[in-house]
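Appendix B, Record 12. Input sequence as logged:
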Amino acid sequence: MWHIDDQKISHVSKHVVEDIIKKLTLKFEQDSPLTVSRGCTLEYLGMQMDYQKKGVMPFSMKDYLEKMLKETPYDMEGSATTPAAIHLFNTDDSAETLSEDKSQLFHHIVAKLLYLCRRTRQDIQTAVAFVHTS
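Logged structural output:
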């Protein structure tokens, strides 16, 4: 798998993986050192992947979500029993416009939620899509 300059290499044979890493290192080491992670649990682009159980590979983004929640201001704290409450689509046209700083933070968090909902939290897609249009 490739994502810009991040790669994930898997193969049944450990030797094939080692050969690819060796070739990549020879080609790119002088520009930027490669970081290689091995093991039964790996982190890749904010996702934790667990290879411990044969035939099953659960994905988690708990750390990504917790880090994102720490970035939110104190006045956004709270909890909900569902990602899309009955009032989700209600808007208030008389609401005060966000300051530039809060607007930037809002868009930053929504972008992270878009990434999260496409990877591991499909249950929040409707809510995220709506706030994305705001």
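Helices lie at 14-28, 62-71, 100-119, 125-132.
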